[in-house]
Inverse folding.
């Protein structure tokens, strides 16, 4: 399964580009060149709570990450 399509890129009015995770729909980050988003995407870890909120359940095969490094808003 290709992993390149986990993130969607959206141009912003400021001329930057925003990366959105298609699994948890969180904004991963924003950068000028789209290429610069890859580093932020690589560090992104979906929050299990977000996945549950969106889908109502956790896919057992995906629930391999321990709950750590979560960003609380
Ligand atoms: Zn995510």
């Amino acid at each position: 399964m290709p992993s390149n399509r986990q993130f969607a890129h959206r141009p912003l009015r400021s001329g930057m580009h925003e990366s959105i995770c298609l699994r948890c729909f969180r904004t991963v980050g924003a950068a000028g060149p789209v290429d610069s988003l890859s580093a932020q995407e690589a560090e992104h870890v979906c929050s299990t709570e977000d996945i549950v909120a969106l889908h109502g359940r956790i896919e057992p095969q995906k629930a391999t990450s321990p709950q750590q490094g979560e960003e609380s808003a």
